[in-house]
């Protein structure tokens, strides 16, 4: 893939005009208030995974409207009496939580790690998932991007982003977690959810979105033929005349808008040849990040010039481990 988006010098200054709905804060306040009527911890069962240096819990927590969401919680073995910082991680598009032994880096580094299953997803790559999406929707293109797309209250990502914020509530409610030292992280869809959770949660210590999806939707559909953004194009090509309603719905879940409401330090990453999450959409989120905070926190972005959507992979995790350790002490 050749370079196809704006030059890096322009990306670094790219600050697109926002299309936030006037009732965005009210929309999310009422959504989260409804979810928080339910006790967040539903079930927590220690499981024997065969890992002798890692303790694993199969967690169910109450997400959107109290609906059950599954997660793996891992921590260093024998550390139940310690109070540790935590990392909540979100998964890429149509992946699932799989096996607990597939995600050990954060627990091995001394954190409590909560890996959230994504409702209804988990059947395109990886080793499966365990959380259904209990809500229905109207006509949709294949995939998840257009489920309930013409009504923000019925839209799929309203449910998923509520789950993401409740995952932060859940990890803070677990014994042995320092609620003041919780970070959120994720790649692609997971990066977009990390930005959403950062905007919908108070007091996070750090945010780590890698090549984030769910950002600057209008720009994305105009500059890439890649999926999943092309799900929106497919839908609009059939449901002619619905674009205004569709993009209004998307404005409520745009991670650019929600990330403006965050106030934690952030380490982003972007790949300049990424045709799935175009660089300009990532820089839109980065340049607008924490724009409503009283004082902009420390932010940084790692640029992978020659990579596509795989981004930095192990290089980025190495950077995150060192960066977060310096923040949590």
UniProtKB/TrEMBL annotation:
GO terms for biological process: polysaccharide metabolic process. InterPro entries: AB_hydrolase_fold, AXE1_dom, CE7. Transmembrane segments: none annotated. The active site is at 188 (nucleophile), 274 (charge relay system), 309 (charge relay system). GO terms for molecular function: cephalosporin-C deacetylase activity. The keyword Hydrolase applies. Substrate binds at residue 93. The keyword Hydrolase applies. It is an enzyme of class 3 (hydrolase). Pfam families: AXE1. Residues 1-325 form the Acetyl xylan esterase domain. Its EC number is 3.1.1.41. Keywords: Hydrolase. This is Cephalosporin-C deacetylase.
């Amino acid at each position: 893939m050749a370079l196809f988006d704006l030059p890096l010098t322009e990306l670094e200054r790219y600050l697109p005009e926002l299309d936030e709905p006037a009732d965005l804060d009210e929309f999310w306040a009422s959504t989260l208030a409804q979810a928080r009527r339910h006790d967040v911890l539903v079930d927590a069962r220690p499981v024997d995974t065969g890992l002798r240096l890692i303790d694993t819990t199969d967690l169910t927590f109450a997400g959107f409207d109290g609906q059950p969401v599954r997660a793996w919680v891992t921590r260093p073995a024998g550390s139940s009496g310690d109070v540790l910082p935590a990392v909540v991680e979100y998964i890429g598009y149509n992946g699932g939580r799989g096996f607990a032994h597939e995600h050990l880096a954060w627990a091995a580094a001394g954190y409590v790690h909560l890996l959230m299953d994504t409702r209804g997803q988990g059947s395109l790559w990886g080793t499966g998932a365990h959380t259904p999406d209990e809500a229905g929707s109207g006509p949709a293109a294949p995939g998840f991007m257009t489920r309930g797309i013409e009504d923000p209250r019925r839209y799929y990502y309203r449910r998923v982003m509520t789950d993401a914020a409740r995952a932060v509530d859940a990890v803070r409610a677990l014994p042995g977690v320092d609620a003041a030292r919780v970070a959120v992280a994720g790649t692609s869809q997971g990066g977009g959810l990390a930005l959403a959770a950062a905007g919908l949660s108070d007091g996070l210590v750090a945010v780590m979105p890698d090549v984030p999806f769910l950002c600057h939707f209008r720009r994305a559909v105009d500059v890439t033929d890649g999926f999943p953004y092309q799900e929106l194009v497919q839908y609009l090509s059939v449901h002619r005349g619905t674009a205004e309603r569709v993009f209004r719905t998307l404005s409520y879940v745009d991670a650019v808008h929600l990330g403006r409401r965050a106030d934690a330090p952030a380490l982003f990453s972007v790949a300049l040849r990424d045709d799935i999450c175009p660089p300009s959409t990532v820089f839109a989120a980065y340049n607008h990040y924490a724009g409503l905070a009283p004082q902009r926190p420390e932010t940084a972005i790692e640029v992978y010039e020659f990579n596509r959507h795989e981004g930095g992979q192990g290089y980025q995790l190495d950077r995150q481990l060192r960066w977060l350790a310096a923040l949590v002490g």
